Amino acid sequence: MFKQPFKHQIFFNRRLKTTGGRYHLNDHHIDINPLMYECFDLANLKAVVVHELCHYHLHLMGRDYHHRSSDFRHLLALTGGQRYAPAIPNREAKYRYQCQTCGVIVNRQRRFNLQLYVCRQCGGRFKLIPK
Ligand SMILES: [Zn+2]
Ligand SMILES: [Zn+2]
Asked: Are 14 and 71 found together in one domain?
């Protein structure tokens, strides 16, 4: 697709949180967020990889590899990469707590100790409530 060899390495990296991928200027490796596949599909994963490869190849050719450059936009259009990675959906909260004093509801991925945490707004105690 790029008519250039890819001579470095590309990894899935779970530490990427909100970005789809990242090209590293120092050692030329690419990190890809596995959620780009797990939350979407292979076509989306491919578009994200192609986006990072546009940075990669332009950088190695000594061209302007920044998002705003016309080189970047042109290469992205030629190769069918995506300009923006799609937003990763929030994982659904497993637990709901309600403050027994002010009534605010907080959603959490994990249980927390009701003796240790108090409401940020009013200092009240929380109670686990059914969803
Ligand atoms: Zn980019
Ligand atoms: Zn409260």
From this structure: yes
* Nearest ligand atom owner, CA of 126: 2
In the reported structure, the alpha carbon of residue 32 is separated from the centroid of ligand 1 by a whole-number distance in angstroms of 11
Domain membership of residue 47 (yes or no) is: yes
- Single-letter amino acid, residue 27: D
- Report how far ligand 1's centroid is from the alpha carbon of 91 (Å): 24
Give the pLDDT confidence score for residue 83 in this predicted structure.
86
- The token duo for 27 is 């050692």
Angle (nearest 5°) at CA 34 between 51 and 87:
65
pLDDT tens profile 22-64: 999 999 999 999 999 888 889 999 999 999 999 999 999 999 9
Which ligand is in closest contact with the Cα of 100? 2
Q: Which DSSP helix (H) or strand (E) runs through 99?
A: strand 95-99
The arrangement of strands across the sheet holding 30-32 comes to 10-12, 30-32, 21-23
- How many Å lie between the centroid of ligand 1 and the Cα of residue 53? 9
Domain of 52, in residue numbers:
10-79
Per the annotation, the verdict on 52 as an active-site residue is: yes
